[in-house]
Fold each of these.
Amino acid sequence: MIIKSNNQYFKGDTMYYRVTKINVNEGHMDEVVSYMDSVSNRFSEFEGLQNINCIQVSKTEVYAFACYKTEDQANNAAVLQKEILGGMAKFFSAPPELMTGPQLWHWSPEEVIV
């Protein structure tokens, strides 16, 4: 199935991502997870937010991937994201690093045509 796309490489609805690298003080990962759980009800305030996935790549590094329907929605999330991240800044060893961009490629078993 091919759906409309603004990206020449992606054959689907292009989603936009806010990718945030978070450097956590060693030994404070559990507090970061607890904080995210405590503010999870706020995520519905982000217009167009589809999902958030966080991966821990080391004892002190996390990457958060927030998926939005449109580029504008991803960009407009900055203020609220800064507010939420600020609530756990005491656990950070460095300021978060933010990257934003369109989805380039996607695979899903639900979309495989046999």
Amino acid sequence: MNKHEMKMTEEMKMTDYVEVTTISTFRIRYMMRKDDLRALNTAVDPTDDELTEWAIQQTRTDTAIDEFSQVWLGEQIVSTRECTEDEMVIAFDRDNDYLKEWTRDAKIRWVRTSLNKNA
């Protein structure tokens, strides 16, 4: 083994974690009564197509509209990578900034026990 291969072998021994990044997908349905949509703008007599567009706009704004139903469609794996414990802690802090005050040991303990939480 040359020096480069030995260094790579040593680095591989230091990769203590596997990171898997996924996207969780939901099908969410909203239901709106046409008369309620018309009441949003009484100055216009909208067509059915315009009412549909208004309904779409309601789901895209910060307007409070309750979902009608939801179905989880699953997770898709986006990427994987190996990382060291130091890299894991950096990722932990970046992704969970509200937990930055946790000690390093608490972060490591949480990650190490997460695999067995559903067992």
